[in-house]
């Protein structure tokens, strides 16, 4: 029998004049009466407060290569202990983890683990980091922060894979505990965010600017290119020019291939030509590190020196090949620094995916 998840009181909410309680975690600002849940499903009004209903439970744990998050400039080649919970504060019609993010069942949360246990298991399994992924960690804010604190006590880094859809005050608290992030920049029009995701673009751009200018968090961006929806040349030009101006040329970008899923089964998959076109636009506009994903593309997955053009990190899917960085993270041919968080030697985890059963560890 599956034990019910722990319910924990939160502090980002306030009571409205009409008696409803407004959740102030994300820009949805759900206004709830007693017993009602927000769109995310996991934050609920209980006893005139907002509680998170999934603390301490996960939809599953797995050890992945850090490149799968994707993060190409953060401890390359190392393993990360990945997990998510249930629910999401966006409603993306193309969601590839819809069975988790759209779950309305506590049965999804089959794996129980305290923050201290997660940190210990990550250390014992040789992981350099713990990644909050599969669904957005914004909605399990309190659990993620407690895990991050336990991880840092064991010299384990923490990674947030997020859509960046969060309010300023909780954003500041959350990222004070994160070492790296991948922000899903889903498109560059508000029309796309409203029509396809049920959200807005502006808060995501604010998160990107916040991370760049007010934190030391290493971050990269990912855009899933959906044919006919967010892959037009004009939009890609506008997006990449904005990134150059507002977060700088050294933030790595990932353009990933869409495959039909959930409510967008009638759309075609993204072509390699479209990914390469997006990559070319970004690089022509000045971005130094631009990658293609969800396709087998050694050239588009590898890292090159922006000064002399040498391949710095070769990648074949998630397997590292060439390594031409010195111990200070510089090109070993021209001594130009490569932006990122590097150790003197890369990890050797490779492409393995190893499920972890917390109940028997």
Give short descriptive properties of this protein.
alpha/beta; TIM Barrel; 9-stranded mixed sheet; 3-stranded antiparallel sheet; 24% helix
Protein model, in words:
With 361 residues, the chain is α/β, with parallel strands linked by helices. The chain folds into two domains: 6-54; 57-360, TIM Barrel (Alpha-Beta Barrel). The protein is 24% helix and 24% strand. It is built from nine helices and 20 strands. It is globular, with a radius of gyration of 20 Å. The two termini are 19 Å apart.
- Write the CATH homologous superfamily of the largest domain: Aldolase class I
Share of helix, binned:
10-25%
Strand content: 15-25%
Give the class-level CATH name of the largest domain.
Alpha Beta
**Counted beta strands:** 20
CATH architecture classification name of the largest domain: Alpha-Beta Barrel
Query: Can you list the strand order of the major beta sheet?
Result: 16-15-14-13-12-11-9-8-20
Helix/strand order: EEEEEEEEEHEHEHEHEHHEHEHEHEEEE
What is the residue-averaged pLDDT? 94
Quick structural overview:
With 361 residues, this protein is an alpha/beta fold. It has nine helices and 20 strands.
Blueprint of the fold:
Layout: E1 6-9, E2 13-15, E3 21-23, E4 31-32, E5 43-46, E6 49-55, E7 57-58, E8 60-65, E9 79-84, H1 98-101, E10 111-112, H2 115-124, E11 129-132, H3 141-152, E12 157-162, H4 168-175, E13 180-184, H5 190-197, H6 202-214, E14 218-225, H7 233-246, E15 253-257, H8 272-284, E16 290-293, H9 298-301, E17 303-304, E18 311-316, E19 319-323, E20 354-356
Parallel strand pairs: 9-11, 11-12, 12-13, 13-14, 14-15, 15-16
Antiparallel strand pairs: 1-6, 2-3, 3-4, 5-6, 7-10, 8-9, 8-20, 17-18, 18-19
């Amino acid at each position: 029998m599956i034990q019910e998840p722990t319910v924990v009181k939160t502090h980002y909410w306030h009571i409205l004049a009409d008696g409803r309680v407004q959740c102030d975690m994300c820009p949805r600002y759900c206004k709830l009466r007693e017993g009602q849940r927000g769109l995310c499903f996991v934050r609920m009004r209980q006893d005139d407060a907002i509680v998170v209903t999934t603390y301490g439970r996960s939809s599953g744990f797995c050890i992945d290569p850090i490149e799968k998050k994707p993060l190409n400039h953060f401890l390359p080649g190392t393993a990360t202990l990945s997990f998510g919970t249930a629910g999401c504060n966006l409603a993306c019609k193309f969601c590839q983890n819809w069975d988790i993010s759209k779950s309305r069942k506590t049965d999804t949360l089959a794996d129980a683990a305290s923050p201290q246990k997660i940190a210990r298991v990550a250390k014992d399994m040789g992981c350099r980091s713990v990644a909050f992924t599969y669904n957005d960690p914004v909605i399990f804010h309190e659990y993620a922060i407690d895990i991050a604190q336990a991880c840092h006590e064991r010299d384990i880094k923490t990674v947030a894979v997020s859509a960046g859809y969060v309010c300023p005050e909780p954003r500041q608290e959350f990222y004070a505990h994160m070492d790296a992030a991948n922000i899903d920049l889903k498109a560059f029009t508000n029309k796309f965010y409203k029509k396809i995701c049920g959200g807005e673009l502006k808060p995501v751009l604010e998160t990107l600017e916040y991370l760049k200018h007010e934190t030391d968090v290493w971050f990269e961006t990912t855009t899933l290119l959906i044919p006919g929806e967010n892959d037009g040349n004009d939009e890609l030009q506008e997006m990449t020019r904005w990134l150059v101006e507002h977060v700088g040329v050294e933030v790595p970008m990932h353009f990933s291939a869409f495959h039909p899923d959930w409510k967008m089964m009638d759309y075609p998959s993204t072509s390699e030509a479209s990914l390469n076109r997006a990559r070319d636009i970004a690089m022509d506009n000045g971005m130094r590190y631009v990658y293609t994903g969800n396709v087998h593309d050694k050239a588009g997955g590898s890292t090159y020196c922006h000064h002399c053009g040498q391949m710095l990190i070769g990648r074949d899917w998630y397997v590292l090949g060439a390594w031409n960085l010195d111990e200070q993270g510089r090109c070993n041919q021209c001594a130009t620094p490569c932006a990122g968080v590097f150790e003197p030697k890369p990890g050797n985890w490779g492409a393995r995916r190893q499920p972890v059963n917390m109940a028997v560890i």
